[in-house]
Design a protein that fits this description.
mainly alpha, 6 helices, single chain, 93 residues
């Protein structure tokens, strides 16, 4: 699979959201329509993780950098940094 897939999967399997996102993770892609519906019940920071995942997958701007530093708790911020490292091909998922 691609580094983008691995990175997006890493983000969507964050332990606090994994149970609600698992059904929308396929072997070759992601159901972002379903993920957006599932995200309606998530916290603001958790919804942001889903938006970041979609942006990485679709290459369409959906989030601002300011949101990462102002809205994510330390664990989710670290998860995003790990995700970007995977997407950049620097680390195996």
């Amino acid at each position: 699979m691609s580094t983008e897939y691995d990175a997006v999967r890493h983000l969507l399997t964050e332990p606090r959201i994994a149970a609600r996102t698992a059904a929308y993770i396929g072997g070759d892609g992601f159901d972002f329509v379903g993920l957006e519906r599932a995200a309606e019940t998530l916290s603001g920071g958790e919804r942001l993780l889903v938006r970041i995942a979609e942006e990485l997958w679709s290459a369409e701007k959906r989030t601002g950098l300011w949101e990462l530093v102002r809205r994510l708790d330390r664990d989710n911020f670290d998860r995003v940094l790990e995700t970007l490292t995977i997407a950049n091909g620097q680390v195996a998922a």
